[in-house]
Amino acid sequence: MNDFRMLRWFGRRAPGGYNRWIAICRIGWSGTANATNLFASFKEFVVRYLNLFVVLSVASLLAITSAHAAKRTPSDAKTKASAEHVGRKISDFTLKSSFGKEYSLSDLASRDIVVVVFLGTECPMAKLYAARLGEMAKSYKATKVGFIGIDSNQQDSLQELSAFGTRHKLKFPLLKDLNNTVADQFGAIRTPEAFVLDKNRVVRYWGRIDDQYGFADGLGYQRPEPSRSDLKEAIDELLAGKEVSVPTTDALGCHIGRVRDVDPLAKVTYSNQIARIFQAHCVECHRAGRIGPFEMTSYAEVAGWGEMIREVVDQGRMPPWHADPAHGSFANDMRLTDEEKKQITTWVDAGCPEGDSAQLPKPQQFVEGWTIGEPDQVVQMGDKPVKIPAEGTVDYYHFTVDPGWKEDKWIKAAEARPSAPEVVHHILVFVQPPGGRGRAARASAKVVSGGTKGADGVKVAALAAAT
Predict the structure, then answer these.
(1) Segment 263-276, tens digit of pLDDT
(2) What is the pTM of this model?
(3) Which of 25, 124, 316, 397 is an S-S bond match for 38, by CB 3.0 to 4.6 Å?
């Protein structure tokens, strides 16, 4: 089949006369409801309904694809940057908070140590660590340690910053750094990224909060617990009058969305090229209510994400696509062509120019509700929703669902749809015959795949509830 979609598969009638069908659901999350994607965005899989055994397996954005540890050996570039950051004296600055009040670094003159953390309201890593930073600030409240959060992203508004603080219950000031002036003084690169200043406001530590979450070799990882809490270690060592033993670590979050100089003569612009690429490969997930951590439907939303977009494209992390091309071509293949990758790089190198808005493509239209059309049957995965905690790992859930079939069914299309797509990584679907249980039954089941395009049949939909 050269034109089947991963979103819609067609199945043949099963041989024999199964008079009862059982659907078994296996669901697993490992992640957070607040982190709308540590790894950028993933499609909801509407998967192939085989004729014999149905298993749903749902994993969250923080699906652990690798247990790799972040490398702590600094590269030559990192070593040079460390020398430029650690030991740097930070001049006083004044910024407005998320509530409009002005704060200055000098307002914390009574504090022997000041922790400055650069954050972003949409960065999945920043969302992961926000609550942890709040607890850390609370734990040092009785000491002479002060905390400040700074948002230097051009795409984040004061209202969004205020909502971020409220959502994560942050009590320390959250300041808006317009034109990334303060980020430039610190040399901040990513979010979340922490700087620890001593009493003379000299940088003594620069880097991550801890090593629990991150990326290695292009894959995301999550430890059950951090093996080293780098920021806390740095603070405690300074409070004890010691030198910071590990003064720099790699912060592996999102690039700060700086305001950049734009090449006025750029030939590749958002309006004439990039918007079309994003519509074809990204907007399906990067739009309101979907799994993408930020929207990509307008220039204002994507301009600050340019460097991050280039990075994940260069590393092959986005767009997500793992189908083997040796097994056919897919109508909804999300991969970028080499020319499209080149255009994105050219656009970012030119400062992400907007171009002439008259050249923009028409807004993309998406189907609301069921993508396969109105289903003939809706099968609920369970009676109660599954709650996803803000932090930690949720092991797999297994559900057995009986669709109530008393006769053979010819499945024309199937759609598995979660109630909270922003925390769903993927869904897998299989079928089990009457009386079959476990892996052995699935392995021995006679599955007939393929089918006839456009054949009349039943549309079946499965609903997964997550909160």
Answers:
(1) 999 999 999 999 99
(2) 0.72
(3) 124
